[in-house]
Amino acid sequence: MSLELSACTDGELAALTLAGRQAAFAEIMRRHKGPVYRLIRAHIGDAEEALDLTQECFAAAFQNLRKYDGDRPLAAWLARVAINKSRDWLRRRRIRQILSFASSLPPETIEGERDEAPGADAVTFDRAELVRLSRAVSQLPATLKETLLLRTVEGLSQGETAAALGISGKAVETRLRRARIKLSNILNCA
After folding, report:
1. Which 8-state DSSP code applies to residue 95?
2. What DSSP string runs through 33-52?
3. How far apart are CA 64 and CA 73, in angstroms?
4. Tens digits of per-residue pLDDT, 95-116?
């Protein structure tokens, strides 16, 4: 008997993975790699590093799959893993920059400096607005940025966002409102 993995729920795929079906985890990755990558990329601002962190996120998810509650949304659980990986990466980058600066190493040893200049294809108004908005989002505090990205970019429900961030639904609502106000202020001042 052959099981059609694409018809399984995320909880069923997790259970199948834990039972030794590697293909089930491949289906989980197929379903969720796009949203996880987008979340990480928006969080750290580096497309190439986001690819690596996405792989690390799924490796960590695979190792810790026993901790996942199959009755809850897998997208929220994976978002939590992705946010933790992103925070760790940002923390390591800051430490490397501080150590590099303190030891007066040449600037090329500092990893992760973002190129803020838009490319040639960013000449159009829409592209310029996207760059402007991305910069404004990157200025938000992490708690507000994470909530905004999960709700508006990734489309998680209020409950899923709350589960991913380990906060209440009301806190999600409050953070989202604050993020929008702060984002509006940043964009109006720019």
Report:
1. H
2. HHHHHHHHHHHH--HHHHHH
3. 15
4. 766 655 544 434 444 444 444 5
